[in-house]
Amino acid sequence: MSTATDAPTFVPPSPRPGLGTVVPYEWFRPVRIGLMWTYLVGYLLWLKYRGLTVDRVSVAIAVAIFLVCAFVGRTWRTWGVLLVDCVAYCTMWVAYEKTRGAADDGVSIFGLFTVKFPLQVETFRNVDRFMFFGHDPNVVLQDHFWERTVRWYDVVAGTTYMTHFVFPMIVMAVLWATSHRQWVRFIKRFATLLGVACFLFVVMPTVPPWMAGDPDWGYNLFHELHRNAGRGFYHIGFESFRDGYKLALSNGNGVAAMPSLHASFALIVPAFFLPWIRPKWLKALVLLFPVVMLASLVYLAEHWVIDGLVGWAITGGVFWFWNRMERRGRRTKAHRARVALP
Amino acid sequence: MSMDPPKVLLEATFLDAVTQPDHPRHDECVAAYRELVQQFEDEQVLLVAVSDHLRAVDHPHGLTTGEKVKWFVHRPRLGVFAPVDPLYVGGQHRRAAAATKVDDPTVALTLVMCSRYGVRRVATLHEAYEAFDLDLLPLPVA
């Protein structure tokens, strides 16, 4: 009679110990995670009771608080890198705000004379009319859908519109905390997009649809359009938080319509994350967001259709450029290594 | 889940073997490194090394103060290890390495850096790493 002891037995190899068994636990890790969760709760409470932070300074402060939570207990060098990054980030936004104003006032050449580029009043409206067989998409959409009461699509349009002020910044903050390499990749694309947009704001100041129809401005390209982009967002109980910082940071520019940064920002985030999204249906779903954004912008009379299309084209161009540059960088480093190898 | 390609850490013994032509396993390591460089170029992996070890290879005769500052701010991307990113060692990493039960300080520091930076794949000639749950890079026969 065979017994269990006669049978050959398989002894699985003992699993090798993980690094956690020899390396001391990093106690700051749970602290960081706890702080980030606390921040998230605080942010949501602020959103509910004070509103969505939309002005640049408040958003920068919100991002800074998040970064402090995310970097607690990291090395001094990491903090130094973060400081350099923050200076670059703030410089980018200040440059953007200041350059935008140049479209209104013209560009001063060493204080000697000022170059002011002609205001585009009908050019892009005509492009839209050409694309839509003689119709003005802004007018058609408002005539068909705008009602005195807020409808569900007003909520969708208003909320989508408001995401512009926080969505890319949230993405940047999360990338900052999780992968500096990916943050650098994102910010290169984002800053280039802002730079190109600012250049076009200056050389191609464009009257937006709401202004083109506003009798106060006197362009009278069509009847007056409603301009209340946030009403759908406010309707569901949210507000926008805007603090009156005396920094005069924002030189609001009413004729910065071409290209649409709303449309560009709505594309840059899904486009950046697209390589990590596997299911095709999910890819299609996230790419629907910029389409909804552009439809909202046109409906809310904030932009011409062509503004959004140019914004998307610039975003595509920026990705093409940086993908190429990064591939080139990798190739150069690999080449240097191969040349130096014995 | 990381958004970056997996990191491969080039451990001190591997770095030495690649740079020293008279090393007994030089040819094997160079062949393995060539393959890693190709994978880096194709963005399949990121190559990293502990900053102390990489600096010792980059500057075997020591650094001047200016070089130290330059290296600390941004390591010059030249030479054999141009594709390799340094994992900068901080005081907290050294303290953690000293608190491990590993006798060899180089191994201890490398394990700490692997743990803190989420590195699972290691190219090494040191058998001490076989005792841990790491993916050690098999070296091809040159």
Helix count of chain A, per DSSP? 13
Distance between the termini of chain A: 66 Å
> How far apart lie the N and C ends of chain B?
34 Å
- What does the overall shape of chain A look like? globular
Summarize the amount of helix of chain B as a percent range: 40-55%
Report the sheet-strand fraction of chain B.
Answer: 5-15%
Number of DSSP strand runs of chain B:
5
SS content category of chain B = alpha/beta
User: C-alpha Rg of chain A, in Å?
Assistant: 26 Å
How much of the sequence lies in strands of chain A comes to under 5%
What is the average per-residue confidence, as pLDDT of chain A, rounded to a whole number?
87
| Helix-strand makeup class of chain A | mainly alpha
**Uncertain ranges of chain B:** none
The proportion of residues forming helix of chain A, as a percent range, comes to: 55-70%
Largest interface: A-B, 31 and 44 residues
Q: How many β-strand stretches of chain A?
A: 4
Quaternary structure type: heterodimer
Strand order of the largest sheet of chain B: 3-2-1-4-5
Number of domains of chain A: 1
Q: Work out the radius of gyration of chain B.
A: 15 Å
The averaged pLDDT of chain B comes out at: 89
Can you offer a commentary on this structure?
The complex is a heterodimer of chains A (342) and B (142). With 342 residues, chain A is mainly alpha-helical. Chain A has one domain. In chain A, 62% of the residues lie in helices and 3% in strands. In chain A, strand 2 and strand 3 form a beta hairpin. In chain A, helix 11 packs across helix 13. The longest helix of chain A has 36 residues. About 1% of the residues of chain A have low confidence. Chain B is α/β, with parallel strands linked by helices and 142 residues long. Chain B has a domain of 97 residues. Chain B has a five-stranded parallel β-sheet. Chains A and B meet through helix 3 and helix 13 of A and helix 2, helix 5 and helix 6 of B.
